[in-house]
Amino acid sequence: MRLPLILLFFLSFCYRSHAQVNDRWQWMEPADTLNKKRFWGSLGTGAAIYSGAALGLYHAWYKDFELTKFRTFDDLREWQQMDKMGHLLTTYTESRLLYDGARWTGLDKKRSLWLAGAAGMFLQSTVEIMDGFSAEWGFSWSDMGFNALGMGAFVAQEAFWDEQRISLKISTNRRLPSPDEFVLSTDGSVTASVRERHIALYGRSIPERFLKDYNTMTIWASANISAFAPKTRLPRWLNIAVGYGSANLYGGFGNSWTDDEGYTFNLPAQDYERYREFYLSFDVDLKRIPTRRRFLRSVLSILNFIKISAPALEYNTAGKLRFHPIFF
Q1: Residue 202: how many CB atoms within 10 A of its CB?
Q2: Residue ranges per domain, the chain?
Q3: Secondary structure letter of residue 36 according to DSSP
Q4: DSSP output for 254-308
Q5: Of 63, 78, 293, 322, which has the fewest beta carbons less than 10 angstroms from its beta carbon?
Q6: Three-state secondary structure along 183-245?
Q7: Position with higher pLDDT, 261 vs 58
Q8: Would the pLDDT of 15 be above 80?
Q9: pLDDT band at residue 23 using 50, 70 and 90 as cut-offs
Q10: pLDDT tens figures, 209-231
Q11: In the beta sheet, which residues pair with residue 8?
Q12: CA-wise closest residue to 285 among 269, 301, 262
């Protein structure tokens, strides 16, 4: 899953708060009517950052791989669909932040929704087209399908409810295999570190692993309780969330790989069973936390793609039911 992280930072820049209190952050107040200076300024800045991000993405991901004629690639069954959940979350988040940015310029709701949906799909299509010309990957119709679902999840809720009652979020932990976990090659001549295989796939740094590590991430649908039950006495910010994750993913279809020297490794299924995880937990809708500070409201809204740590109940396809006092 090659998430366009730089683009998410750009979208965060575009977002502006909706608070109504007079303070020094008055400039963050959305315009009542179209403010051409804001609109063209945001458009120009966004175009410049998008161009830089696309160039950076090419050099980071594609430069060292062979280019081919445009081709498609069916990866729907890879990684137990964790990469598809990433596409769903990314396009949803992009569309949400772009919509808020458009509203800040003074565009009306209808035009803002059209712009957010179209721009969100355009940003993700850049990645898919680059994939299509890479011998390592290929254009994925299933990726585009989940991109459309993510965009649609935002647009539909905003159009019908005028708010996001169900937010898509991510959480992750920093679990890594033990340094003394090794596997023999199929010919029994050499060993490989499972930990190093994990790092080779998902990265070593915290930011990399936060948005790339399929073994430690969970994608959530977080529903606001008071939005569906307005008469409840529960806090307005309290959500209930269902999550999806996977474990022991060390290859797209199976836990086998060949290293640079040509040795092949297979992780034993009895020790590294690939299974799916399903979670039920509580969460916090950061956008609904009451505050009079525009800047703080803006920060909370940007960070609302992160699932807050809370107790969680897990059921997995390995047949185990677990309770986690705190799960992140």
Answers
A1: 21
A2: 1-162, 164-328
A3: H
A4: SSEEE-TTS-EEE--TTTS--EEEEEEEEEE-GGGS--S-HHHHHHHHHGGGBPP
A5: 63
A6: EEECCCCCEEEHHHHHHHHHCCCHHHHHHHCCCCEEEEEEEEHHHHCCCCCCCCCEEEEEEEE
A7: 261
A8: no
A9: low
A10: 777 899 999 999 999 999 999 99
A11: none
A12: 301
> Distance (Å, rounded) from C-alpha 255 to C-alpha 209?
19
DSSP code of residue 327: E
CB 193 within 8 A of CB 138: no
Residue 186 contacts residue 230 (beta carbons within 8 Å) = no
Give the pLDDT of residue 87.
Answer: 93
CA distance 115 to 174: 37
Type of residue found at 10: F
DSSP annotation of 60 reads I
Residue 247, token pair as written in the block = 């474990």
The predicted structure's pLDDT at residue 130: 86
Q: Buried (b) or exposed (e) across 78-114, using 16+ Cβ within 10 A? A: bbbbbbbbbbbbbbbbbbbbbbbbbbbbbbeeeebbe
What are the structure tokens assigned to 23, written together?
């303070």
